[in-house]
Specification:
250 residues; alpha/beta; Spore Coat Polysaccharide Biosynthesis Protein SpsA, Chain A; 8-stranded mixed β-sheet; 8 helices; 35% helix; 20% strand; IspD/TarI; 2-C-methyl-D-erythritol 4-phosphate cytidylyltransferase
Amino acid sequence: MTHPRRHRRPHLRGKAAGIVLAGGSGTRVGAGINKAFLPLSGRSIASWGINTLASVEGVGTLVFVVRPEDLEHARFVAERETQHHLEIIIGGDTRQESELMALRHLADRIDSGAVDTVLIHDAARPLVSHGLAAAVLHAAREHGGAVPGIPAADVAPVDGPDRLAEGRFDPSSLVRVQTPQGFRASTILDAYEAAARDGFVGTDTASCAEEYTDIPVSWVRGEETNFKITYAQDLLLAQDVVAALGLRTG
């Protein structure tokens, strides 16, 4: 079911909303619970990104999107691991459905202008810095959309399943995309509603924006430490990074 869009009233600049997605499992990490709720130096993986987004000037709302079976864990995060008000909602079967549910949750505030920008972040990227999140928000407000990325210097094109493609290739034209990804809220909500009507499924927020909007999406230099925790060794590396950088654990 899709929701019709309502007329949006003229408004002064509103606040940004941080959306943190925690729809994954712990299978590849070797855990029996959603990896977002595994401990990282004293608190859950998810709480790191939540607290970082909350610390960015201009972010006024935090939405935490979880699976039904993770509600108890999410409430623990809200009550014990952050001092910021956390709006917990149930997501969908896919990342895109979860993002759409979060945007619909914010729809009235988007229509009124209370929320003008959204930052959509993977809970499994706990070590995003305050500076990077702030830079993405600034760029999103300047251009309409922004994503962080790392130049993909270690990739090459292939020609079929068993050989590299011939000819020159410029790896500087590719980046490895990270989160948070920031977009003008009204534009990205309309894009997701259009995608839902068409049955389009993108790989991330930026792919949906590219398909259904004409806003220019800028890229902000990402951070090597803003990696996604997928396997057990990633969690060990994150613990090492926390220790090396002396990051707060509570």
